[in-house]
Specification:
This protein has strands at residues 2-7, 10-13, 18-26, 28-39, 46-51, 57-59, 67-72, 77-82, 91-101, 106-110, 114-119. The protein is mostly beta strands. Strands 2, 4, 5, 6, 9, 10 and 11 form a seven-stranded mixed β-sheet that branches.
Length: 120
């Protein structure tokens, strides 16, 4: 079994910053892609940023230049540094990971989410 635990969400004023963390634990052999997704009320979940095990990154157009995704492979942890936050960034942020288990089977896991609220 594998668990993803997010932390770092909260309430911040527009223009402020937050740093999200997501730590994976359990029967992990290796982690391929780690993503951050978000879901605002009444909207579909969307991909915010992704990072491969080799460090290649991809961002949604709406966050380019403001958010930075990074990971610490030794700690099985992915981060999302969010700067210049806007009210439209308000959402529940979810961590996702594609993992090869210790039995060499591939699995996809989601965290439970962390709330980010940006006030005007």
């Amino acid at each position: 079994q594998v668990q993803l635990v997010e932390s770092g969400g909260g309430l911040v004023q527009a223009g402020g910053s937050l740093r999200l963390s997501c730590a994976a634990s359990g029967s992990i052999f290796s982690i391929n892609v780690m993503d951050w997704h978000r879901q605002a009320p009444g909207k579909q979940r969307e991909l915010v940023a992704s990072i491969t095990s080799g460090g290649n990154t991809n961002y949604a157009d709406s966050v380019k230049g403001r958010f930075t995704i990074s990971r610490d492979n030794a700690k099985n942890t992915v981060y999302l540094q969010m700067n210049s936050l806007k009210p439209e960034d308000t959402a529940v942020y979810y961590c996702y990971a594609h993992i090869w288990s210790t039995s060499r089977s591939p699995y996809s896991y989601w965290g439970k989410g962390t709330q980010v609220t940006v006030s005007p």
